[in-house]
Amino acid sequence: MKILVINTGSSSIKYQLFEMPERKVLAKGLVERIGHDDSQVTHQYRQEGELEKHTRTMPVKDHREGLQIVSTLLTSPELGVIHDPSEVDAVGHRVVHGGEHFSATTLIGDEVLETIRRLIPLAPLHNPANLRGIEVAMEIFSSAKQVAVFDTAFHQTIPEEAFRYAIPGSFYREHGVRVYGFHGTSHLYVAKRAAEFLGKDVEDVNLITLHLGNGASVTAVKNGQSVDTSMGFSPLPGLMMGTRCGDIDPSIIFYMNRALGMGMDEIDDLLNKKSGLLGVGGNNDLRDILKRAEGGDKNARLALGMYTYRIKKYIGAYVAVLNRVDALVFTAGVGENSPLIRRMACEGLEHMGIRVNEERNRRAIGVMTEIQAAESHVRILVIPTDEELEIALQTGRIVARASREKVEK
Questions:
Q1: What three-state secondary structure class fits 93?
Q2: pLDDT tens digit string along 252-311?
C-alpha cells in the first residue's frame, strides 16, 4: 500500500510517500514560501536504494499549485517513484485541531470536512491550511482514501480535572474553552517506541515525554494514555519555546493593553512570535543560543537557564501526577540532539531517581538509546520522533479496517 502523508502549513507543504507495511520512504520533500516568486521546492526520491535530492526555486502561487508540483515530481520520469497519482492508495493529512469531536484517526467525508471547518476559530493559523490541503488532495489524488490524523486526538484521554480551566463552566460548555494539547502524534509515537524499548506493552508504561523543538511540550503518559500535557487551549502555554512565551501570568496581557497601550493583535504577535528564546536570548534557534552562551553572553545563558528550569518544573509536576515513572523520554530536534539541555533539565532531580550518565548522554545524538546512570531508578531515553511515519501507520490501519468492514457487509 502506498500512503502519501501531507502536512500543510500556512505557507508550506511537507510530504512523504511510504510503501507500507514495509515503512519504506519512497520520496519526501518540502514546498515552502508558497505565495512568493522565490518559493523553495526540495524533493528527495529513492533511486537504487538511496534518496537523491533535487531542489529548485520557482514561483508557487497557492497550495493547489504546490500540491500539483508535488504530484508532478512524484510521477516525473526523471525524479518520480510512481507513474500516476492513482497509484497512491491513501493520503494521510496532519490536522492540528480536532477539538472534542475527534479522539482518533478518521476517514474524511463531507461531515468531517465541515467539522474541521467549524473548528477554525480554535486554530485560525493551522486548520484553514490543513483544510485547504485536504480539499486539493481530494482532487489531485481522487482515487485515494483521504484520512485525517489530529494533533489533539491523543490528548482526549486527559481527565476533566486536568483539562478544565478554573473559569465559569459556560465557557467550556458553550465555547469549548479547555485544554486540548498538541504534538499528540509525536507523543504517541515515542510512547509506543519507548514501550518497545522497555520490553513492555504500551498499556503498561508510565512515561514523561518531552517534545523539545522550536515548539515544545511535555506530556504525562499513564498506562499508555495522555493524562496531562503542557500546551493548552492553544500551543502558546507550557514550556518556553523558540518564539512562544510559554506559561505567563494572564494579568500581564491586561497590563500591556491598558498601561502600555498595546493592541490585542500586537500582544498576540509578541507572545507567539517575539518571545521565548528569541525574546530573552536574542535568537530563536537553540544552536545559536548555545554558541553565544559558550562565549559568555549573559542573555544567552539566562535563556538557557530559563528554558531548562521550566522543563525541570514540568518533570517534577508530572512525577507527582504519575506517581510511578518508568522512563523520561526526550525527542524532537532539541531533545534528540542536545546533550547539554538534557543534562541541565535533569540536574537536581536525583532525589526523584533521575540521574544522567554523562558519557552516554554525550554520545546520544539523533539515535534511540538510553542515557541514565546505573543508579538511576528512572530510565532516561532519547527517541527520534517520526510524526510522518505515525500518520502513515494510523492511515494504513484505518483504511485496512474500512476495507474489512466493507467486505463483511
A1: strand
A2: 999 999 999 999 999 999 999 999 999 999 999 898 999 999 999 999 999 999 999 999
Candidates 84, 194, 188, 58; CA nearest to 141 is: 84
Task: Please give the positions annotated as active site.
Answer: 151
Global pTM reads: 0.92
Q: Treating both helix axes as pointing N-terminal to C-terminal, what angle do 286-294 and 298-322 enclose, rounded to 10 degrees?
A: 120
Mean pLDDT score, 200-213: 97
**Domains by residue range for the chain, with CATH:** 2-150 (3.30.420.40), 199-387 (3.30.420.40)
Task: Report helix, strand or coil for 207.
Answer: strand
- Rounded-to-integer distance, Cα 230 and Cα 312, Å: 12
| Average pLDDT along the chain | 94
Exposure string for 286-322, b = 16+ CB within 10 A, e = fewer:
beebbebbeeebeebbebbebbbebbbebbeebbeeb
Taking the CB of residue 125, how many other CB atoms lie within 10 A of it?
14
**pLDDT band at residue 409, thresholds of 50, 70 and 90?**
low
Residue 286 near residue 241, CB atoms below 8 Å: no
